[in-house]
Write a sequence for this structure.
């Protein structure tokens, strides 16, 4: 049976200095907002402020809570591939807890530009581990006993499932894209630093996240925004690829529980108990938007099947029994509740989406220009 989520301040105990990498991203931003709203911890937000980084959601929380919260949020604009900058940032943060979310995560981009993923996800994680270990070894005995590094990964490192079975913590790794391969490598590095150097770590592998503030290049925001605009909604292949969907706030619950109460050296799989085909997701979104914009119904007529991407995994599904039995976690939102909240949020934040979409267009142009230069 799932337990109620403990207060964040109680979970953290005496951990008052929290370093969140990728804290200007979708999941990282949700973690930072929760820490600011529900604890007194000082949050060091390390982010390279790339194309998918955005501080709007954090600024809104700070404005809502008052100026005193500004002094608890420190933005460190650092690329993890810059070892000297990483070492300096970690020294300044002097953390009691590191929540490592920074990663390149878009599969399509990893196929067209794998170098960025190798550098960010593998070299970046190595640099972080090196800097954190150095700082950890200088902590007092009391602080060392409480210190943890939580490395957040993906279920994609396990490969692809057929119609039966679920991923669990003992599933062999079988990554099939440059993205998942780079994340698998970073998982192995974290485990190696635990077993070789005694660095206190925990790991999690999560399923597909969704919710407010997600950068609009992922399936759910793409489908919502395309449908609102009356544009074609792309659907890879036959649309029957299955993912397990996890509402971002439920993921934050799990991340903080594992970070503070998980067994050191252990990994935890986090799923949303919501397996859906991509086609189901898109048609459900269209049906919901028919209610908001009946004059444009049926939005499902905008769905257009496009050529499948290379190496597209068929099915992901997660067995979350370990985190449920050991830590009492279960998602608080059903998929229907989470999706309704997400659609409502995007309907109210179309201006924000237009602004960040301009960053996508710029990024794509920049990548194309870089490719031409290299050729």
């Amino acid at each position: 049976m799932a337990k109620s989520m403990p207060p964040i301040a109680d979970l953290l105990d005496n951990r008052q200095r929290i370093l969140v990498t990728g804290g200007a991203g979708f999941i990282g931003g949700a973690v930072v907002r929760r820490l600011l709203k529900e604890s007194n911890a000082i949050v060091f937000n390390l982010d390279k402020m790339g194309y998918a980084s955005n501080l709007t959601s954090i600024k809104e929380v700070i404005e809502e809570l008052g100026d005193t919260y500004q002094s608890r949020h420190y933005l460190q604009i650092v690329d993890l591939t810059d070892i000297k900058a990483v070492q300096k940032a970690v020294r300044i943060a002097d953390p009691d807890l590191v929540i490592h979310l920074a990663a390149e995560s878009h599969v399509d981009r990893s196929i067209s530009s794998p170098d960025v993923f190798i550098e960010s996800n593998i070299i970046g994680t190595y640099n972080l581990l090196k800097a954190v270990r150095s700082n950890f070894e200088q902590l007092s005995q009391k602080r060392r006993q409480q210190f943890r590094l939580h490395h957040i990964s993906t279920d994609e490192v396990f490969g692809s499932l057929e119609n039966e079975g679920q991923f669990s913590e003992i599933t062999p790794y079988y990554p099939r894209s440059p993205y998942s391969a780079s994340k698998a490598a970073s998982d192995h590095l974290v485990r190696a630093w635990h077993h070789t150097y005694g660095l206190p770590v925990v790991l999690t592998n999560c399923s597909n996240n969704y919710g407010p503030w997600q950068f609009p290049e992922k399936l759910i925001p793409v489908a919502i925004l395309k449908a609102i605009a009356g544009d074609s909604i792309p659907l890879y292949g036959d649309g029957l690829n299955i993912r397990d969907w996890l509402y971002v706030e439920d993921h934050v619950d799990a991340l903080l529980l594992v970070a503070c109460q998980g067994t050191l050296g252990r990994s935890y799989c986090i799923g949303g108990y919501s397996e859906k085909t991509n086609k189901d997701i898109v048609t459900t979104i269209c049906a919901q938007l028919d209610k908001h914009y009946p004059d444009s119904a049926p939005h499902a007529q905008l769905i257009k099947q496009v050529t499948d991407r290379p190496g597209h995994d068929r099915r992901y599904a997660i067995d979350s029994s370990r985190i449920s039995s050991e830590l009492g976690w279960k998602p608080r939102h059903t998929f229907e509740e989470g999706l309704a909240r997400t659609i409502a949020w995007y309907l109210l934040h179309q201006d924000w989406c237009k602004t960040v979409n301009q960053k996508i267009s710029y990024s794509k142009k920049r990548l194309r220009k870089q490719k031409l230069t290299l050729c």
Remarks:
- The longest strand covers residues 148-154.
- Confidence is low (pLDDT under 50) at residues 362-375.
- The CA atoms of residues 312 and 320 lie 23 Å apart.
